[in-house]
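Here is one record:
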Amino acid sequence: MSLHNLKPAVGSTFTKKRLGRGEGSGSAGTSGRGHKGAKSRSGYSKKIGFEGGQMPLQRRVPKFGFTNPNRTEYRVINLDIIQKLIDAKKVKEITLESLIASGLASKNDLVKVLGRGKISGSVKVKVNKISLSAKNAIEKAGGSIELINSNIPSEEVKILKDSTVKETKKEITKEATKQAKKETIKEPTEKAKKETTKKASNETAKKASKETAKKASKETKKETKK
């Protein structure tokens, strides 16, 4: 084989169909496009999903719900993946760095562990979030869990701290107001009791003095008659 007898493989090349080259060519007149219609015009390109003018499928299907633009998205890691890492690489700690090294997460990801599969090896897990089933399975296998907020901006953490401080302050103020109300209720009752006892003693003293005066007046009358 040399340069002058090189040929392409059989069937790899073909001659272009010549359109509009007379009746004898077999594709004259309309050049295979037919009569009229959008497809016969130059510059035609079919719109994706176009169904000839009837309502297309993407508009016939009912829509519901929405995608929250302020959602927090997590990189999901299941228990079976953790078990594979334990078996293959003898991992004793699952962190964002170890997941990045294994190609399971990127540096800006928030990691959440879910409970698919089974885990038998004990491992320390440091992630942002974990499901209850995954937590129970890891603890049963002898592992430990630590929730971190390393990928959350410091401003958000500050906001969370401020909110907790505000809640504690509100609780303290509520308890103080309750105690003050109780004291205010107790004080008037004690005062009322003291006042009632004083009134009762005064009335008894008045009655005793009246009786003694009556007796004295009766005795004086008797003596005067004699």
